């Protein structure tokens, strides 16, 4: 993994003897691509999961480019519920089925952090800040994330989130068409910065756009080479290094300015400052959680609003539910804007009195979160479905194994919030499962409900195709897009008309 500790790290890297590095790297890469690592296979007979044919880098590149197809193809080729492949000198075991699912989510030796940081490659890597963290720092970041969602702190986020929605939505034309996977995602990125970073950053629209652009570079720059060969100075790696350096600079300046100024603000950064956390903990908290929160919640919001735009029945139900909340908690002044009216609804009501929105979110996460959970077995050796999972091996479990399983969810691609609970263990993983559930789900649920309510009550809108015609069915989420799950670009849009003059 590449590391960034100081601002000068990237400059030093770029000024090094690049020609020699490139030549040596390409020689090594040629050997790996041509000869692969088949000789490294260790066969423990019937105890080992079957190997996926072809373990050279070209054969496993689709794991990073088209993961959904790669894993499905692996199960098809091997005909087994578990199979394995080599990733350079590491063993990766893919599991499925009820036995695999239960073992994966309950084994305490299967470590998420170790699995994710090697197999994902899509987080900004700063040594001691977002990677190679001491256990106590990881635990402290988790503790602070929990604190940021306590009742009082979370209740205070409602108005700022809705104010952000109003400001961005008012910039839209009175009527028009946009790509929800651009506009809605941008909106959720803003609200996530507001909720998990600082007012200083969130209030600077240009700086938020800059941050989003830099995180987009990290997403688009995640290639097989950047994950498997992080020492290879390819253009995508250099871009990721530069983007990480820039993100680090933005966040560290915000932290340093707050600490040095002594100014008090009502935001999450202030909570970290008041707790007297280490500088690296504060920077790591913001850098890591911004990307995790924005990706997952932004993707869910984009799909949720897209699905409702194509489903009149559930759009009406959700709209009526929010109208009912406004009737129960009426505004003090009838001339208040929509965002002000929604701000008057207490957190308790948003969480306990919105069963329709909960059902819509639940179904959206089932269909449109293409996660592959990643772990590493920190030991000892163990067995899943009578197959050996050695200490040190990486284990992955594709959520499609349960969420798109027609035996568990009939017609699995259909958006149907009326579905009952799955009757199998770990039958729903929208917020994770077992000992690893989404620690930020309380904030994510609130963001999704607030943004959706602004869309439902502030606009008339429908999901349309490239020609502006209503779609007979919503687009299908692209599970090969492992980070954002976006459909084919240009395949769907939202046509809208502002419903109220005062958002």
Describe the structure.
With 503 residues, the protein is an alpha+beta fold. It is built from 23 helices and 13 strands. α8 crosses α17, α10 crosses α23 and α11 packs across α23. 40% of the residues are buried.
* Model regions low in confidence, pLDDT < 50 over at least 5 residues: 1-40
Q: Tell me the Rg in angstroms.
A: 23 Å
Average pLDDT over all residues: 86
The level of helicity is 40-55%
- Total helical segments: 23
Overall geometry comes to globular
Strand order of the largest sheet: 1-2-3-9-6-4
Number of strands: 13
Give the CA-CA distance, first to last residue: 46 Å
Estimate what percentage of residues fall within beta strands: 5-15%
Structural class: alpha+beta
Oligomer: single chain
The description of the largest β-sheet is: 6 strands, mixed
Task: Give the helices and strands, then pairings.
Blueprint: H1 8-15, H2 18-35, E1 50-51, H3 57-60, H4 62-65, H5 67-78, E2 82-87, E3 90-95, H6 97-106, E4 110-111, H7 112-119, H8 135-147, H9 151-155, H10 158-170, E5 175-178, H11 180-196, H12 199-202, H13 205-220, H14 224-228, H15 235-261, H16 268-274, H17 279-309, H18 312-328, H19 338-343, H20 347-352, H21 355-368, E6 372-377, E7 382-384, E8 387-389, E9 394-398, H22 400-403, E10 432-433, E11 436-437, H23 441-458, E12 459-464, E13 493-498
Parallel strand pairs: 1-2, 3-9
Antiparallel strand pairs: 2-3, 4-6, 5-13, 6-9, 7-8, 10-11, 12-13
Helix pairs in contact: 8-17, 10-11, 10-23, 11-17, 11-23, 13-15, 15-17, 17-21, 17-23, 18-21
């Amino acid at each position: 993994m590449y590391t960034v500790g100081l601002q000068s790290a990237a400059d030093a890297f770029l000024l090094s003897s690049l020609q020699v590095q490139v030549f040596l790297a390409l020689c090594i890469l040629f050997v790996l691509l041509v000869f692969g690592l088949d000789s490294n296979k260790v066969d423990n007979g019937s105890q080992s999961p079957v190997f996926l044919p072809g373990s050279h880098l070209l054969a496993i590149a689709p794991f990073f480019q088209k993961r959904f197809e790669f894993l499905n193809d692996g199960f098809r080729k091997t005909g087994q519920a578990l199979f394995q492949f080599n990733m350079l000198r590491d063993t990766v075991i893919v599991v499925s089925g009820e036995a695999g699912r239960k073992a994966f989510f309950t084994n305490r030796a299967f470590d998420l952090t170790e699995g994710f940081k090697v197999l994902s490659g899509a987080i900004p890597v700063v040594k001691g800040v977002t990677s190679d963290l001491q256990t106590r720092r990881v635990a402290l970041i988790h503790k602070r994330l929990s604190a940021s969602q306590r009742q009082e702190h979370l209740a205070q986020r409602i108005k700022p989130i809705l104010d952000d929605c109003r400001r961005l939505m008012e910039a839209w034309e009175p009527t028009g068409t946009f790509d929800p996977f651009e506009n809605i995602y941008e909106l959720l990125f803003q609200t996530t910065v507001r909720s998990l970073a600082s007012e200083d950053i969130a209030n600077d629209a240009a700086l938020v756009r800059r941050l989003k652009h830099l995180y987009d570079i990290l997403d688009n720059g995640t290639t097989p080479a950047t994950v498997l060969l992080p020492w290879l100075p390819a253009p995508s790696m250099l871009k990721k290094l530069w983007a990480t350096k820039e993100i680090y600079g933005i966040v560290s300046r915000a932290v340093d300015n707050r600490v040095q100024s002594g100014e008090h603000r009502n935001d999450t950064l202030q909570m970290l400052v008041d707790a007297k956390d280490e500088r690296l903990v504060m920077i790591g908290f913001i850098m890591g959680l911004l990307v995790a929160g924005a990706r997952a919640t932004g993707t869910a919001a984009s799909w949720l609003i897209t699905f409702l735009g194509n489903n009149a029945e559930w759009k009406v139900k959700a709209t009526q539910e929010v109208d009912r909340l406004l009737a129960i908690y009426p505004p003090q002044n009838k001339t208040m804007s929509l965002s002000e009216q929604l701000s008057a609804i207490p957190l308790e009501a948003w969480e306990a009195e919105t069963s329709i929105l909960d059902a819509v979110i639940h179904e959206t996460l089932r269909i449109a979160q293409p996660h592959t959970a990643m772990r590493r077995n920190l030991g000892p050796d163990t067995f899943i479905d009578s197959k050996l999972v050695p200490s040190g091996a990486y284990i992955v479990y594709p959520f499609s194994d349960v969420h798109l399983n027609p035996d568990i969810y009939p017609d699995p691609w259909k958006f149907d919030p009326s579905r009952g609970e799955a009757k199998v263990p770990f039958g729903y993983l929208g917020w994770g499962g077992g000992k690893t559930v989404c620690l930020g789900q309380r904030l994510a649920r609130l963001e999704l409900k607030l943004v959706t309510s602004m869309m439902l009550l502030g606009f008339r809108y429908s999901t349309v195709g490239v020609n502006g015609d209503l779609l007979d069915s919503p687009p299908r989420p692209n599970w090969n897009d492992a980070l954002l799950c976006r459909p084919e670009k240009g395949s769907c849009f939202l046509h809208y008309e502002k419903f109220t003059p005062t958002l």
